[in-house]
Amino acid sequence: MTIASQAPAELHGASAASTTTAPGSAPRRRRKSLTENRWGYAYVAPFFLVFAAFSLYPFMYTAWVSLHRTSLSNIDGGTWVGLDNYRNLLQSEFFWNALRNTFTIGILATVPQLCMAIGLAHLLNYKLRGRTFFRTVMLMPYATSIAAATLVFSQLFGRDYGLINTMLEAVGLERIDWQSGTVSSQVAIAVIVTWRWTGYNALIYLAAMQAIPGELYEAAEIDGANKWKQFLHVTVPSLRPTILFTVVVSTIGAVQLFGEPLLFGATNSTSGGSSGQYQTLGLLMYQQGWSNFHIGQAATTAWMMFMIILLIVGINAAISRLRNRAER
Amino acid sequence: MIHSTKGRATLGAALAAVLLTAGCGGSDGDAAADAAPYDPNAPVTLTVGTFGTMDLDNAGLYDEYMKLHPNVTIKQNNITESAEYYKSLQTRLAAGSGLDDIQGLEIGFIADVVRNHGDAFVDFAAEENAEELKGNFYDWKWGQASTEDGKTIGLGTDTGPQAMCYRKDLFQQAGLPTERDQVSELWPTWEAYLDVARQYQGKSSNKFLDSPASIFSSSVYQGETAYNDAEGNPIPEESEGVKTAWGYASTAASEGLTANLEQFGKEWNAAFSNGAFATIACPAWMLGYIKSQLGDAGTGLWDVASLPGTESSGASNWGGSFLGVPKDGKNVEAAKDLAEWLTAPEQQVKTFTEAAHFPSSPQAAADPAVVDATNEYFNNAPTGKIFGESAEAIKRTPIGPYDTQIQEAFTTALTDVASNGTAPDAGFANAVKAAQQAIGG
Q1: Cys-Cys crosslink for A142: which of A200, A205, B51, B365, Cβ 3.0 to 4.6 Å?
Q2: What integer is the mean pLDDT of A71-87?
Q3: Do A119 and A60 share a domain, yes or no?
Q4: What are phi and psi of A79, to 5 degrees?
Q5: pTM for this structure?
C-alpha cells in the first residue's frame, strides 16, 4: 500500500475521467490530478532533469552547432552556413570511407559474435559441472575496460614484436602486418569487439533460454527431434524477441565504434590507419572535432550517425513487424 | 494543501538548481579590470600550465624563484600529452575562464594562438623592457610568437635544433666509419645520406633509419617554406620544402631503407632496445627520449653527427615551446615577472644543464656551460657545440595554425607508401587530400 503503487492507477483513472467529462471541467480536474500525484512526479523528476541537462540540451545544441562553420576555441562565434556542413559531408570521400569501414567492421564483429553467443548460451544451459564459474568467466571481458583490452590486443597484433606474428612464424606461416592492411586491420578490430561482447550477449540469451518452458523440449523429444533440431525449432524461435534486441543493441554499438580503432593504431592517431583503412564514423567525428578543431563538421557527423542509427532501428522494427504479421 | 505548495516549491528549486548548473561557466572574466596597483612583495600563488616534459620543475627553477621571492608560491598543472593540453587550453580560451596565470605554448599550436587568440594574452612587445626581452631570443624564435602587427604573446623556453643520431656499433658492423666527424662527412646532403643507407642495407639485416618521418619532419623545415606561405597560410601542395622533403622521405620509404615504424608508437619504442635501426633524426630533446627508452644499458651505443642538408640549408628546428601570460588573469603583473625570469638566458642555461633542453636564447647558447657541454651517454658528444651551430643557422620558416595536422597527414601517407607499396605520387595526393580536410572547415 505505498504511494508509488497507487500512483499509476490514479493516473490512469484521471486520464480516463478527463476524456469522458465535459471540456469545461477538464482544467480543474487536471490540476487536481497533478497535485494528487505530486510524489509520482517528484520521483521521476530527477531522471528527466538530468536527461534534459546532459542529453537533451547537448543534443539540440549539437544540431545548432552543426549548422555553423566554427572551431573548438570559438564555438559560439561561428558563422551560419545552413546545411552546407551536411552537403560537404555527403560529398566527402572521408565520410564514405568511414561509413564503409563502420559497416564492414560492424558485420565482421556482430555476426560471429551473436552466433557464438547463442551457441555458448546453449551449452551453458546444460547442467554442467562448474556452471557458475563458466558464466562468470564469460562476463569478464565485458568488465574489462576498452582501453586496457585494446592496448593488450594491439600489442598481440604488433607487426614486429607481436605474439600472434611470432606464433604464425613458429608454425611456418608468413608474418602479417595487421595494422596496415585493410582486411587484416578490420578483422583484428572485429576480434577485439567480439572478444568483449560475446559473453555479455551469451548471458542475455541464457536468461531468455531459461524462460523457455521445458515442456516444449519434452514434446519435441517425444516427436523424435534430436538436440540440434530442438535447438533449431524450439530454442531459436523462442529467442526471436531477444535476438532482435541484441541485434539492435549491437548495431547501435557498431555504428558508434570508437575506442577500439582509436587505440588499435600505433600512435592513437585519429586517422584510422595509414590510408584510413579502419577509420570509423566515430573516429572521423573525433578527428574533425578534436584533431582538426572543426566543431561544426564534427557535430554534423554526429547527427548523421544518429540518423543512420534511427534508420537501422527503423528497418529492424519494420522487418520484425512484417514477420509477425506473416506468422499470424 | 499546504503540503502541496511546499512540494511544488521544492521541485521548482531543484529544477532551477539544475538549470543553473547546466547554464553556467564563462562569465567571471571581468574581475581583473579593477586594477589595484601591483605590489611585488604581496603574497601570491601563481599557477603554470605545462605539457609533456617542459622540465621547468625538474630544472629546479620554481624552487629557486620561490627562494628568491618568499611571497610567491608556484603551482604547476602538467598535462602529459601536448595534444590533450591544447584541447583543454582551447576550451578554456573559448569559455574565458579556468586559465592558468602562465600557459605553456608549443610550436605546434602557437601559430593558431597567435592568429586567433592573440588578444587573450599579454603583449610582451608593448612592455617597457621589450627591446631587452627581444634581445634575449633568436630572431626566428621571437618571430614565431609574434602577430603580423607586431604583438608578441609568448617568451621562448627551449628549441629543437637538429642533428643525426647514429648507432656506433651497427655502423662498425656494416663497415662504415664510426667517428662523428667522419660520419658527418659521409652525408653533407640527403642524397648522400640515402646512398649511405643503400650501402648499409646491403651489409646489414636491420634497417638504416627508424621511419620515413625522420627524414620528412627534419628536412621539411630546411627549405624556404615548410607548410605555409610567408603570411602563414597553409600551402601543403605547392610548398618547395614539402616537395623536397617528400622526395627524400618517399624514396627511403619505397626502397625499404627504413624500419617503417610510426614515431612515438609502441613498436617504435620497443625497437630502440632491439637495435632495429641505425640512425634517427635527433632534435636536441630526442637525446633525452633515447636515453629514457634504453636506460643505462644504452650508454655509449649512440653518438651524434650533423644533420644532412638540402641545397638551401643544413639547419632545421623541430619542436620548442613558449610561455604566455593570459591577459585577464588575477595576477598578471606577478605572472609576467615569473615568465620573464623563467625564460631569461641564465635560467635557460640551467634547463639545458639540468634537463637537456636546448636554449632559445643566443646568450644562453654562448654560455660556456652550454658551449662546452658534452653528453656522457652519447660517447661524450659535444652536444652544446653541435646543437649551438645548428640553432645559429636556423632560418625563420613561416609557421601556421595547421602544421601539426598537415605534418601528420604527410607522415601517415609515408607509412602507407612504406607498408602498402603505394606509389609515392599517389601517396602525395592522399596526403594533400588529408591536409586539405584538416585545413578546410
Answers
A1: A200
A2: 88
A3: no
A4: -100, 145
A5: 0.84
